[in-house]
Structures are given as C-alpha cells and as structure tokens.
Amino acid sequence: MAKTLSAIRHIVRQFLRDEFVSGSDYEFPEDEIDLHVPEVLIEISQRRPSEVRETLTIANKSGTATATTASHLIDTANAQFVAGDVGKTVYNSTDKTTAKVTEYNSESDLTLDTDIMASGESYYLYCYQGTSGKDLNISSITNLLEVEKAEYLTRQTPQAFRNVKVFGDILTLDIDFTPTDGDEVFLYCHKVHQLSDSSSTLKPDLEGVLIKGVVAKAALAWCNEIRKEITAAESTVSSANTQIGNMAARITQAVSDLTSGRALIAGKRSEAITAIGNMSGRVTQALADLTSGRAVIGNKRATAIIAIENMTGQLNQAATDLANGRAKIEDLRTTMDTAIDNMSARITQATNDLASGRDKINTITIANAQSDYAKYAVAELGNAARYLSQAQGYLSEQTTSDRYSNYAARDIQLAVGYLNQARGYLATDQAATEYSASAARELQSAATYLNQARGYLALDQGARDYATYSAREIATALSYLNVADGYFRKLTAQLNISAAVTRYQNWAKDQFAIYQNELRGIAKSRAWRFY
To answer: What is the reported pTM?
Structure first.
C-alpha cells in the first residue's frame, strides 16, 4: 500500500530525529517539509516519471462563412459547431487572419474576439494556437514533463504510434495525412509523481528515494538557517566593536584628563617649591632674630642685676651716712629732719623703683617697663639730691655733719654711676625689641610665601577634578566593556553550536550524496524510437 504524505512526513522526522515531544514544537514544521517534497518528486520524476496516458481530440473543421456579422462566424451550410469549440482558433485562410472563439451560439454561429470573417471567406477551426489539424493543445495536461509518443489512429492492432513535436503548448503529430475532426488521440505522457494524504503515484522503491531526498534537503536547509545565526553573530560583533570603540574613546579621554591634571600639577610644582623655600628662609631668619634677642638679654641680665645691687648698697650707705650726719646736727634738727625724711622717702622710692625694675628684668620682658622704672628711680634720686643739698645747707656749719654729707654725696654719686651702668645694660632691652620686631617681619614674609604656596597648591583641586573626570570616563568605559562582554557572551553562545552544526552539515551532505546515488539508480534508460 502506497504511503500517504503524512506517513512520509513522519518517517522524514524520524530520520531527522525530530520526534514529537509534548509541549514542544517540531523543529521541522509540516510546511517546511512540504516545501521539499515537490522538489524531490520532480527530481525523481525526471529519472523515473509517472507514466500516464492522456486523451485529446483532433480539432480540424473547415468551411466558408455564409453571412457577415461583426465578430461572428456564420456557417449555416455545414452547421458543424459544438460547445467544445469555445477557446479554439479560427483561421481566415482568405485574409490570413486569426481570432479566438469566445462563445458558442449555435451549431452555425460562433462569437469571435476579433472581427475577421465575412460572407464567402474560407476558414479553418483548429485547437487554440494551432496552425493545422495535426496540432493539439496540451496545456490542459497537468504536471506534464514530456510526451513520449502519440497513438493515432487509436485502438488499432498493432497500435499506431506516432512521433510528436512539442513547442510550447502545441503538440504536432508526425503524420502524413489530414486527421479527422473529433478523432481521439492517445498521448503517452511522462508526468511528475503526485503525493497527498489521499493518494500517491509512487512505488515503494521511489518512496524510499523520496524520503532520503527530503531528509537531505531539509537538513541542508536547516544548516542554511544557521546563516541567520551567523548574521546575528556578525551584528553582535558589530555591536561589540561599537561598545569597544566607545570604551576606547572613554579610556582615551580618561588618559587625557589624567595627563591634563598631571601637567597642571607639574606646571606649578617648581613655583610652589620656590615659595615654600622662601617661607622656610624667612622662618629661619625669624628664629635667628629671636635667638639673637634672647642672647642679648641673657648675656647682660646678670651684669645688670649686680649693678643694681651695687647701686642699692651705695644708696643704703648714703642713707646711713645722712642719718649719722643728721644725728650730729642739733641746731637745725627739726628742719634738717624734715629735709632728710623727704630725701629718705625719695631714696626709698628710688630703691623701690630700681627693685621693681630688677624684678622686670627677671621676667625678661621685651617691653620698656625696666627703663621706665629706672627713669623713676633717677627722678627720685634727683629729688633726694635736692633734699640733700637742703640738708647740707643746714649742716654746712657742722664739720662732722659735713663729712657725713660728703660721704652720702659720694655714695649717691656711686649709686648714680651704678644706675647709669644698669641703664646701659638695660638699654639692651631695646635691641631685643628690635630683634623681636625683625622676627615678626620675617614671620609676616613667611606667611606671605605660605599663602603663595597655598595658592599654587590649590591647583591640586583642579588636578582632583581631572582625576574625578578620569574616574567617570573609566566608569563609563567599564559600562561599555560590560555591554561588550554581554555581546561577546551572546556571540559565544551563537558560535558554540558551530561544531555541532558542522557535524550535522556533514551528515546532511552524506544524506544528500546517498539521495543522489539513489536518483542515479532509479533513472530509466531512454529508448528513442521513431515511428
């Protein structure tokens, strides 16, 4: 029993390992398999066709028009027309013109597509596009590959086979007589095998060839489908290249940003170093000035203290001498006592001032308080000297008191000398002040240089900005890289099947080779024969 189309599909899928799985679609749908079935059927039929005898009828009427009617052929004399004449060709042998029959009106009237006939003009009625009664129009024969031969007259013993010539849809019988209209002609045709779910013209051996051919062609077609994957892979490569290009651009920009930041820092580095060097010089000078001022004060401090102590001793001696002289004065005791008391008070105040000045020296202050106390002491000693002169006036007549006064005067004079000496030593405080002021100026200059250096170093923010830009560019480049990586992963997935596809393609080629060999095996030898 011949296999139907459905049965052939099932076997093809078995060969293709495309078995039905519940919930999944076939890898090879019916319409895809059915695309290859007709192609293989033709290839099989070209080698071993379906042999079919078709019957056609001779069309070969002739006569003369008996009337003139536009676009009509009227022949009441023969009254030979039939409904089957519609579609045939009318040849006006008088005018050498042709027309096509479009309508059957009666046995004596046909409607034509062109007005070619007039009364008295001769005509021939042939098959459509025919030029003689020997012509047959074979356009109605479906799936025709070729006509091997014709039989005419039919049903003769032996059979009357005829050679034929085919041009387009017209078959011409190779006969040397005029055929009779209406006679049947047997045409021995080679046709394409037919296969459907209800019928088949294939014999079992040809069914096997069909299956092998469909399997091979379907497998090769599936391999060709991989070109879509390759096209997709090429598109993926293009997309990946685009992302890599974007990434390269971002990295280039990042490198440019870093180079700009580095150039910005390098451009001001020497200026900042110079400013910091200047600042260091000024700070060093300030330290030197402060050290010098401290040394000046430190070297003279002990000497100034000794001078003040000597002055204090002389003043105390003067006070003692004056007290002794006062005891010797008796006539002017009350007045002299007052003068001496006043002088003592002044000397005491001078002593206090000098003591206060000495205390200030001990604190090593850079102000002028010591000098002020020294001045106060000198003023008090001046007052004491006036009181001393007053007391000397009172004591001028007393030799002993005179002597004591002289002693006191000498002691005060020595005290004044020590005072001047102390003042000289204390004058070094002014030098210390000047050193301090110089150090302050140096520190101010150092601060200026520091601000300058800070200005240069503030460019570091610009460098950081460039670094930030670079970081963003690199982050963007990384995102492009991730996208490119995704494309490459997709590409890898698309191309990983290449080995399996290659094996499958080799198998498909093997199947196709088997199919071609089967085709050669079924080819029917052509025995050309002339009748």
So the answer is: 0.54
